[in-house]
Amino acid sequence: MEGKGKHFLTIDERKKLTLDGVQHVGSFDESEITLDTNMGFLQLKGEGMHITHLNLDEGNLVVEGYIHGIAYIEGRNAKGGKSRGKGIMNRLLK
């Protein structure tokens, strides 16, 4: 876990999510958004979700739609790989 910078998450009536501390958006569609944050990998699940604001320079994101779940997942990043410290050969030989 990196833990540097601010990390702030708010949800308004399960319809609007605001997040500070975003470093990278891995994938997104109406039912799932995956992100790398300064506090680890974050997975959002819901219905009709769309990103209405994204500024990676400032590290903030706003998602609107119906939020079903939020999960921090250890040992992954939004690009779908394991932790960033592993070399490409280690990942290929698994």
TrEMBL record:
<dbReference type="InterPro" id="IPR038705">
    <property type="entry name" value="YabP_sf"/>
</dbReference>
<dbReference type="Pfam" id="PF07873">
    <property type="entry name" value="YabP"/>
</dbReference>
<dbReference type="InterPro" id="IPR022476">
    <property type="entry name" value="Spore_YabP/YqfC"/>
</dbReference>
<dbReference type="InterPro" id="IPR012504">
    <property type="entry name" value="Spore_YabP"/>
</dbReference>
<protein>
    <submittedName>
        <fullName>Sporulation protein YabP</fullName>
    </submittedName>
</protein>
<dbReference type="GO" id="GO:0030435">
    <property type="term" value="P:sporulation resulting in formation of a cellular spore"/>
</dbReference>
